[in-house]
Amino acid sequence: MYRTLAVSGYRSLRDVAVRLGKVTVVTGPNGSGKSSLYRSLRLLAGCALGDAVGSLAREGGLSSVLWAGPETLKGARREGLVQGTVWKGPVSLKLGIGADALSYLVDLGLPQQSPMTVSAFTRDPEIKREAVWAGPIMRTSTLFARRKRALVEARDDGPWEEMPFQLASHQSMLADLPELRALRDDLAAWRFYDALRTDADALARQPRIGTRTWALASDGSDVAAALQTIVERGKEPVEEFVADAFPGSRLEVRAVDGVFDLTLSQHGMLRPLHAAELSDGTLRYIMWLAALLAPVRPPLMALNEPENSLHPTLIAPLGRLIARSAVDTQVVVVTHSQALVEALTEAVDEDDLELVELEKDTGETVVVDQGLLSRPTWEWGRR
User: Fold this and answer.
1) β-strands 191-193, 300-304: how paired?
2) 85-107: b or e for each residue (b if 16 or more CB lie within 10 Å)?
3) Model's pTM, two decimal places?
4) What averages of pLDDT result for each successive group of 10 residues across the chain (383 residues)?
5) Contact (Cβ atoms closer than 8 angstroms) between residue 100 and residue 1
6) CA angle 200, 206, 209 (to 5 degrees)
7) 130: part of which helix (H) or strand (E)?
8) How far is C-alpha 353 from the chain's CA centre?
9) DSSP one-letter code for 113
10) Which of 46, 198, 266, 311 is 20 to 30 A from 139, comparing alpha carbons?
11) Distances (CA, A) of 307 to 194, 253, 313, 316, 336
């Protein structure tokens, strides 16, 4: 189980560590850093997929996502201003995930420049340092593998052994050490849902050729095939969750010559409605049904504002659906909806739920009511 998410130097997340539960709910006003926390999870998964540089490039490059404030806020809050500060340390974006099994840290920075360097890619981020250790807290005795620039070292119970290869600045050691394959596969399997399409041209609204689908696509385009896979597997009470959200309704997937079409029969209607006819909110809830009850659950699933387009009456059923999914996976929910927070508080056992409220303080994202004793233990180490 993942215990801690730590981020340093990413947008407004100057130095944040949050405790993770079976269900972690992240709330806060607009601009408080919720989306940045969500994106930091994406970046961590990107490192496992060997796409850290590409992930940052899609956000405008490393210089665009770095913490824009001073290196330290000491004295700034007292004086009520943050300006005129000169950075003394290296530019750094650090991400980490602490777990009961193996934990991981990556430190990204800008390439070192020399007068002889002639390249159009001098702003590409580099992996400066990586570390993998056993348990949620990094200690010298628990370190299992480490990387500093191109050099990679690993150990079991004995001394550090230098690996007979060196890594390019964009390569993660997770891809080259067989001992880290399980960790890499877990991070790469994380699933993210923030762009479920319900517009008129969405593929989910159209009959489509389908195959057995073990996980819903990130845009929800294969929702009919995904639902049919869940139904045929027969291990999830799909009908109960449909009735919970739409009393008296029946969801059906029709397959003709391999072409799948989604229909919903509702009380009082003379015929079932096809996916193209469903409201945005109804179709989106059905997509969440397919995503959260997927036969193959990832180690972690992140949902960004899942309440979007949903009628208030669907919020409580969504909370119960998320709670059901969390039996087999960890779920991180980023939400504006207080109603969803209340629904999850009611549906999820208290010991399995972590509520993380964010706010801005002098431009920095902080966790509300988090002090030295309540902040999870986390060590970044040094380059």
Assistant:
1) parallel
2) eeeeeebbbbbbbbbeebbbbbb
3) 0.92
4) 96 95 97 94 88 77 74 56 53 93 93 66 82 95 94 92 91 91 95 96 96 97 97 95 96 95 89 95 98 97 97 98 97 97 97 97 94 93 87
5) yes
6) 155
7) strand 126-134
8) 17
9) P
10) 46
11) 11, 24, 11, 10, 8
Amino acid in the structure at residue 108: L
Q: What does the DSSP 8-state code read for residue 214?
A: S
15-35 burial, b if ≥16 CB within 10 A, otherwise e?
Answer: bbbbbbbbbbbbbbeeebbbb
CA distances from 20 to 97, 100, 136 (A): 10, 12, 11
- The tokens describing 79, both together, are 């004086």
Distance CA 277, CA 153 (A): 58
The Cβ of residue 171 has, within 10 Å, a number of other Cβ atoms equal to 18
Q: Are 379 and 135 in contact (CB under 8 A)?
A: no
| Structure token pair of residue 269 | 């209607």
